[in-house]
Amino acid sequence: MLQRTFEKVLIVLAITSVVIALSSIYVFIVGANPIMPLHIVYFIILVISFLDSIYAWGIIGGLSLFLLAFFIGLFFEIIGVLYGVPFGKYHYTEKIPAKIIGLVPPDIPLYWFVIIHTSIRITNVISGESILGSNNLYKRVMISFVDGLCAVSWDLIMDPIMVNVYHVWVWEKPSGLYGIPLTNFIGWIIVVFITSFTFRTIFHHLSNPRELITPALMYFLLWLVMFLTAIYYGTLYLTPVGSFGMLGFLTIYGLRLRSFKTTIQNS
């Protein structure tokens, strides 16, 4: 009974986020700024991610993933700002004045958790595994790598907008895709792989939960917010690469969902 209630809460929150995001289109049409509703959506996505993590892996597993993603993400952000490893040399601007040890805005490691959690949930369906970490080490490595590809697909649309539209951070040697070094995207895969593989190894015995639509909605919303922002600021040219990656993962997710549900029912 409690699990069913939890599932309904997650679905209601996810649908609410979609409604708010889509309402920003109307706000845009009438000539107002739609960005505030989109910021609200991102906050709700953070809440949903945390609740969905606990739903999927239990309190210990959910909190462990949150802490792993937060602190591994923060660690790499700090050495990235200081030494340019592994992303390339960059720094955060004063658009967000509050920073952890004067270097990294506090919401950055929170969204490392959001995208890593969401990517794990998406990849679980695609891989069709009945448990979180495959008993086959090679397969676990490959699944964790796909987690990285799933996450970096979001960065391929998010980073260009944050750099070229919001100017939240600045690359000291602009290059590559829309002024963003290709090392940044490689760095993303590395960070997500390390976090995912660590989590999947520690909690490899956990059964994957009955799949909800929530992770797919969260991933879609992460794309939609960036896409609508690009429309508002007239920068749609920044979106094709990331859109192709994210919508591609959602398509594969949809195609694999029925097979995954059958695997879970039979396990």
Briefly characterize the structure:
The protein is mostly helical. The protein contains seven helices and two strands, in the order ααβααβααα.
Q: What labels describe this entry?
A:
267 residues; mainly alpha; two-stranded antiparallel ribbon; 2 strands
What does this molecule look like?
The protein is mostly helical and 267 residues long. The chain has one domain. It contains 7 helices and 2 strands. A two-stranded antiparallel sheet has the order 1-2. The radius of gyration is 18 Å and the shape is globular.
Give helix and strand order, one letter per element, not per position.
HHEHHEHHH
> What's the total number of strands?
2
Helix and strand content put the structural class at mainly alpha
| Whole-number mean pLDDT | 87
Distance between the amino and carboxyl termini: 22 Å
The count of helical stretches stands at 7
Radius of gyration: 18 Å
The tally of structural domains comes to: 1
Q: Unreliable runs, pLDDT <50, ≥5 residues? A: none
Strand order of the largest sheet: 1-2
- Report the sheet with the most strands, covering strand number, pairing sense and barrel closure: 2 strands, antiparallel
Helix content: over 70%
**Global shape:** globular
Tell me the fraction of residues in β-strands, as a range.
under 5%
